[in-house]
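Feature request, filed as a ticket because there's no other form

It would be nice if the structure record came with a short human-readable summary line next to the tokens. Right now we just get the raw output. Example of a typical job, pasted below so the devs can see what we mean:
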Amino acid sequence: MMVVPTLKKAVFLDRDGTLIEEKEYLHKPAQVSIFPEVFAALKKLQEAGFLLFLVTNQSGVGRGYFTLKDVEKVHEHINRMLQEQGVRLARIYIAPEAPDQPSWGRKPSPQFLFDARDEFGLDLGSSYMIGDKLIDLECGWNAGVAKSFLVRTGYGKEVERQSPEKIGSGLVLDNLQEVANWILSRHSVAATPITTVS
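Raw output as currently delivered:
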């Protein structure tokens, strides 16, 4: 009998407006304010077996407003705050290019999700994308995730008001806690390994 490893499932998170409060071109650790419901929501997802990834466009680097090192310092701070609450991000993916510059992974490109799939052995069809902009939803759709969510934090309310027809198969919920509850209501905590007889 051969045991086929079960592919892992993941939750991909936008940063600004989803994980932390939206502050235009945020680039200092002192500016970071994580939404209060985030810690418990991510911990529950993590305990249910989801790997957590941050996928963020940081065009301020490409525009010359701040440096990639500034972004890394912000992420070190975010990581530290999450880890203090028992939450671990598997990887942070950053697209530093401005919108008019060639980019490998800038959302709505699904490239970072494909990279995570290949490196971590993910089943994107059992994974989720969460963000506050249409490009976040599109990134998830382009990667073939199970569901893309628009949260009403950050720019989400405005997107919902201005472009309801573009949300399509995306699901709109108030915040990350509501998204986590929705996901967990549809997933068992432990996946059963798939076995095949050879």
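Something like this underneath would help us a lot:
The chain has seven helices and eight strands.
Residues 15-187 form a domain with the Rossmann fold fold (CATH 3.40.50.1000).
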